[in-house]
Amino acid sequence: MNIEHHFYREVMVVSMPFRDGRLVEEGPQEFVEELLALADAASRRVAFDMSKVSYLNSTGLGELVRIKDCLTDRNIELILIKPSQRVISLLSMAGIDRFFNIIDDEHRID
């Protein structure tokens, strides 16, 4: 898989493509392993640019939670950049929005 990414202030910013409600083509664990192979070994934060993801279905929501858990197990923070209002509402309804650092622009990464 080709993960489109760049670095901003030592944070790997991943452009998440729209996939009909899902986040990844393969399993979350495999996706995290690919992320870690691309990330700087010293990087403690990864950001997902969610601006192209208009919604998540239940599978996509589960993938997001599993990805976050995999990263958290490695002491890596996951930041969500510019998720749609629909995605924010879903996170809120599921009661998990408070577990994510959500920002509206990558330039707000500090």
Any key phrases for this structure?
single chain, 110 residues, alpha/beta, Transcription Regulator spoIIAA, five-stranded mixed β-sheet, 3 helices
Describe the structure.
- With 110 residues, the chain is α/β, with parallel strands linked by helices.
- The protein has one domain (5-105): Transcription Regulator spoIIAA (2-Layer Sandwich), CATH 3.30.750.
- 33% of the residues lie in helices and 20% in strands.
- It is built from 3 helices and 5 strands.
- The protein has a 5-stranded mixed sheet with strand order 1-2-3-4-5, covered by helices on one side.
- α1 (28-38) crosses α2 (58-73).
- It is globular and about 35 Å long.
Tally the helices: what do you get? 3
Helix-strand category: alpha/beta
**Order of H and E elements:** EEHEHEHE
CATH superfamily: STAS domain
Strand fraction:
15-25%
Question: What is the topological layout?
Answer:
Blueprint: E1 5-8, E2 11-15, H1 28-38, E3 45-49, H2 58-73, E4 77-81, H3 85-93, E5 101-103
Parallel strand pairs: 2-3, 3-4, 4-5
Antiparallel strand pairs: 1-2
Helix pairs in contact: 1-2
Brief overview:
By secondary structure, the chain is an alpha/beta fold. It is built from 3 helices and 5 strands.
